[in-house]
Amino acid sequence: MKHLTTRQLVELSLYAALIFVSVQCLRIPMGAQFVHFGNALVVVAVLLYGSRLGALVAAVGLGLFDVLNGYAAEVWITILESLIVCAVLHLVFEGLMQSKDTTRNVIVVGVVAALTKIISNLIKYTLINSLVGGLNLQVAFLTAVVKIGGTFGSALVTIIAVPILYPLLKQVFARQHTQTRTVSN
Fold it and tell me: Where do the TM regions start and end (predicted)?
């Protein structure tokens, strides 16, 4: 990773805080989970900063939420799932789409991220139900499907929010960078 300026570090820290606050304050309980904007903001972070820095702010923002809200034992799983989503987006957006942020590509990226999150949650809970709970694989999978209602809700939020939030945040950050250059000249 290249050396980051103090301004970039502050911006990334504020973005991680935005992820944390969005999950902390804007969540809707749904079964054993809840619907939130955190995953959508992770996708927007990848679009704005690239997959490496997006993964960093995702790990900090979502990890901080887990640690401060009684999920410290599972924080590593949250971070791993975020890294998986960022890696898939790296392959799709930065690899296949060559980081071209057309409206169509942004929508596709949101859908891919949502599906990746659903699949990773299904695998996680199927394994937990099977290995820890002792259920056979088919029952473990069906139990996982029932358990991840919040994931389905957050996936829908991601699909809807990413194409709306990305252009807005891109414009805000572009304006901030323009103002900084103007002031420093």
Answer: 41-65, 71-93, 105-127, 139-166
CATH number at residue 100: 1.10.1760.20
3-class state of residue 28 by DSSP:
strand
Domain membership flag for residue 137: yes
In angstroms, rounded to a whole number, what is the distance separating the alpha carbons of residues 56 and 48? 13
Per-residue confidence (pLDDT) for residue 177, from 0 to 100: 62
Q: How confident is the model at residue 108 (pLDDT cuts 50, 70, 90)?
A: very high
Domain annotation covers residue 3: no
Dihedral of the alpha carbons of 93, 181, 2, 37, in degrees to the nearest 10: -40
Query: What token pair was written down for 143?
Result: 């139990």
- Domain housing 30: 8-180
Count of domains forming the chain: 1
pTM: 0.89
Q: State how far the Cα of 63 lies from the Cα of 73, in Å rounded to an integer.
A: 11
Residue in this structure with the two tokens 């900063």, named with its chain if needed: 49
